[in-house]
Amino acid sequence: MDTRVSTRRLPDVESVLVAVGFVLLINVVGGLPGILSSPDTAWFRSLAKPWFYPPTIAFPVVWTALFSLLGVALWLVWRSDADGRRLALGLFAVQMLFNVAWTPAFFRLEAPLVALGIILALWAFVVGTVIAFRRVDTRAAALLVPYLAWVTFAAVLNFELWRLNA
Length: 166
Prior knowledge:
Elements: H1 13-36, H2 42-46, H3 58-78, H4 85-108, H5 112-136, H6 138-165
């Protein structure tokens, strides 16, 4: 029988509230372009879709989960005093700018090739952010891995939408 007492404490209420604030902030920032640039347009409906195009409901569900993970990861890095914290936060901000820019480029401008360039840059900045987060907090980096996987999938999907409709 293990009789050791754990020295890990649960976070205090204020820390939990701040973490929830980060999650809400990232969901609002990440979701805003989807509200302003709806995929429900005649142009988008007319596009040929690849066989692996997910059901429409998958997008808000996946993005909400991913933005929530990003919010927690950002909170972990933000509260750290580790070296590299500023770089990690800066890279996070840059990758979010590219994330937010993709939706209007694709849906509002109806420019899949421009959007492909944006998502490829996003992918590179997400990789950089994962590496930078890992230097600050490995848990934060791990929370970004599903996001990187989804951005990879989204880039392939974007490419196929462009290729099939060029």
